[in-house]
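Our collaborator T.R. sent over the components below with a one-line note: 'Predict the complex.' Nothing else. No constraints on interfaces, no templates requested, no preferences about which chain binds where. So this is a plain run: every listed entity goes in together, and whatever single assembly comes back becomes the starting point for the next discussion.
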Amino acid sequence: MRDDILDLLKNNSKLSHEQIATMLDLSVEEVENEIVQLEKKNIIVKYSTLIDWDKTNKELVSALIDVKVTPERDFGFDAVAKRIYKFPEVSSVHLMSGGYDLSVQVEGRTMKEVALFVAEKLSTIEHVQSTATHFMLKTYKKDGVIFKGETKPAERLVVSP
Amino acid sequence: MNWSKIISPRVQAIPPSGIRKFFDLASEVDNVISLGVGEPDFVTPWHIREAAFYSLEQGDTMYTSNYGLLELREEIANLLKRDYKLEYSPKNQILVTVGVSEALDLALRALLKEGEEVLLPEPCYVSYEPSALLAGGKVVRIKTRAEDNFKLRAKDLREAITPKSKVLVLCYPSNPTGATMDKADLEEIAEVVKEHNLIVLSDEIYSRLTYEGEHTSFATLEGMKKRTILFNGFSKAYAMTGWRVGYVAAPEEILQAMMKIHQYTMLCAPIVSQKAALEAVRNGDKEVEKMVKSYNQRRRVIVKGLNEIGLECFKPKGSFYVFPSIKSTGLSSEEFAERLLKEEGVVVIPGNVFGESGEGFIRCSYASSLDNIYEALKRIGRFVDKL
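Returned assembly:
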């Protein structure tokens, strides 16, 4: 039940409790209780909206920064990660396997703004060995949703047997 | 030229499709929401489409064996064994066809002598009767009822049987009602089938779209495999309607007879479609499960919504149709569907096009987005309130 509710909300967080209850053959109370639990336990962290900013006039630049780190004794990567994710410019931070340690997404209004943030704030943090900045030029797909580039498939017939 | 004297009377005797009219009507109305579509609203899963591109790149542009690609037949045999513990030889008991429609036509033509009777539980899919008539058969319809959730009763079957009865067509899960028949239901039918030495054409194209209980394949019932022609395909489960690929599994003798017609008329199913089907049957389960889950959610929404509007409707366990009664409105099925389309822009199919016992009902397909279903329910509710 829990996974089914999460799957539905992940796709459309505007679904009402009644709708979810009907779709999953549960009572409204069951759904409400479960969602309260999920929120309390911070499993549902936030209800947000997926926006294709490229279609708006808003100036927004995103970059993925590969960050190599010397892990701190006793704290490992967590302490460094914390120093990074506290910046509001940073929209996501993941600990990675492979050639570098932290993958950091930074957002700003211009490339210069992002680049300066990396140069001045990120790379100067203690234990950060190196950074490599990759600007995102175009979003094709995000969170399982294809943004654009796909031509529409043929429409179904309105009536068929 | 007087074509009516030239065109075969057998073809002229076939009435035009009752569905066609709604297709034309719908094209005149703006902002239409359609619950009239008899195919999945999903596009074929990408991995299947991708396999088709690859196959074309490889240069797979030839005829295949008349039976279909051997490796596809082998996978179909594996699937039937896995899902139903049915054993069919890929060599001579499985034929890949251009959809179930072709396969049904082959079977009826291979079986029927002039005037022999085809038993057709209705409401049923619109192609069965014309196919049977074109094959020279006579159609005997058997009514099913809303109070039985449109299951076929053994008693009704028995009463319809005459010395000329030869073939019984079953389609469960059902288009248009969504009805299913569980093992016990089918066993009662099997008894009659045995008694009267019938051949069963079991169209199980919606088998994977079963939401409660398990689908029982007719051939698994005791003594039935030798008198059953099993039809299935890829259109509904894998969202592959336009690829036109289905299959039939049957005893060797009848399969050979069907094969004889198939090799002269169709030669083989298109190779790209067969390659795509191969990918579907090998690696398609995950996507099928996702789609089934989604249909099931929408099924619950539409059944609840229609009942709340006052259009009484049992909760069908299979396919992607619901078949609510519109008797409370006092309108005929055609009137209801026509007015609903003109006044609210919602397409549904009047139940009577699937047979007389569909009168008083409409077929709504929930293979449509959740938003569409909610909007359609809103409009249907407004329409019914106005009456």
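Summary for T.R.: Chain B touches chain A at residues 17, 19, 22-23, 26-27, 32, 34, 36-39, 41, 43, 125-127, 175, 297-298, 300-301, 304, 347, 349 (CB under 8 Å).
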